[in-house]
Amino acid sequence: MRALVTHAKESIVQAAGCVLWRRSPVDGELEVCLIHRPKYDDWSHPKGKLKRGEDPRAGALREVAEETGCDADLGAELPTLRYLANGRPKQVRYWAAEAVAGRFTPNDEVDRLLWLPPAAARGRLTQPRDRDLVDELVRRLELA
User: Fold this and answer.
1) Domains in the chain: how many in total?
2) How far, rounded to the nearest angstrom, does the alpha carbon of residue 113 sit from its chain's CA centroid?
3) CA angle in degrees (0–180, nearest 5) for 117-96-70
4) Is the full-model pTM beyond 0.70?
5) What is the pLDDT of residues 64-120, one digit of tens each?
6) What's 124's domain CATH number?
């Protein structure tokens, strides 16, 4: 029985990402970063699969750097999303992360990046499951 449990856990795709945010350089209002992935033609938060043995926090920051060009300060952990991707169960752990430096350069994986107010970000996100993460980020920042 233990082997079945271990096997089931190992078959879950483990990923991590961030709801990346900053204060607008124009008016100081909250902005959320969304990325466009041409492979899927979708708008999402920066995220990706963890490397074997990689700490989820480190993986989340690595994915942010790779997909947005931003260095970020990791904040509170946000809800974990679980869903099927290509017929396999996937689990994505998310953190709030403040962008502190960096510059976006389009590449094959991510061709566009937008900084949007939370309401606009919610409307642009392709997957409804990603929208609740924006709401949770706003709640966490209001409590801080």
Assistant:
1) 1
2) 13
3) 80
4) yes
5) 999 999 999 999 999 999 999 989 999 999 999 999 999 999 999 999 999 999 999
6) 3.90.79.10
